[in-house]
Design a protein that fits this description.
With 71 residues, the chain is mainly alpha-helical. It is built from five helices and no strands.
């Protein structure tokens, strides 16, 4: 269930889309490492969803100048 929750939290990814993605990839880690071409094989995942997915995966976390141990 946690895997579905994690994957379905991506922008515009429903529970069904997340399930199809996990069935194709096997695990969230494997899903996160799929190529753009492989992501396109997931039913219901088109160019826009792939772009949003990659934007989330590739964006740096905002840093307000604090180090990790200062949070």
């Amino acid at each position: 269930k946690l895997q579905l929750y994690l994957v379905s939290s991506f922008p515009n990814w429903s529970g069904e889309t997340a399930k199809r993605a996990l069935l194709l990839a096997g695990s969230p880690r494997k899903l996160f490492n799929l190529s753009t071409e492989e992501l396109g094989k997931i039913e219901g995942v088109g160019k826009k969803r792939i772009e949003e997915f990659l934007k989330v995966m590739d964006s740096d976390f905002p840093n307000d100048g604090k180090k990790q141990d200062e949070t």
